[in-house]
Amino acid sequence: MSTSSAAEGTVLHFGGLKSYVTGSTESKLAVLLVSNVVGYEYPNLRKLADKVAAAGFFVVVPDFFYGDPMNLDNPQFDREAWHKAHSVEKAYEDAKPVLAALKSQSVSAIGAAGFCWGGNVVAKLAKSDDIKAAVILHPGRLADEDVHEVKVHTAILGAEIDKYAPQNI
């Protein structure tokens, strides 16, 4: 991996969604990264995807918001309406064709990691047989029932003080 700040992957349609993809398409191991509400274009998320790819994984970061990430800079932004338009359930359904596209590339194992809002999507995926492992980072509004019945090894990585994540999941 180079030390430049430029992203190393590319944006293309993958599994029906515009996605940032990085890493070798020959890899048998893949990671689905699910963004927080600021979306898949966030530079630090892409840098992280590139680092994961450098470890030997093929990484896909889909645009589950269809070009409409939350605008955190606008105090007038209607967050409630945005959440209704971009539900975790819809992203979970939208993730299925992405996972199918990964499997069609002969990927033998898929992991998923999600940040804040994306952690809730990954929690739903962890209840399916579609992934082999899950990582939920800074779990946004994750409730106990969201992690019950997970079928795969799941790591929940919250901040030391996190007002949204329950302490005893």
UniProtKB/TrEMBL annotation:
This is Putative alpha/Beta hydrolase. The keyword DNA-binding does not apply. The lineage of its organism: Eukaryota, Viridiplantae, Streptophyta, Embryophyta, Tracheophyta. Pfam families: DLH. It comes from Rosa chinensis (China rose). InterPro entries: AB_hydrolase_fold (IPR029058), Dienelactn_hydro (IPR002925). Residues 18-163 form the Dienelactone hydrolase domain. Keywords: Hydrolase. GO terms for molecular function: hydrolase activity.
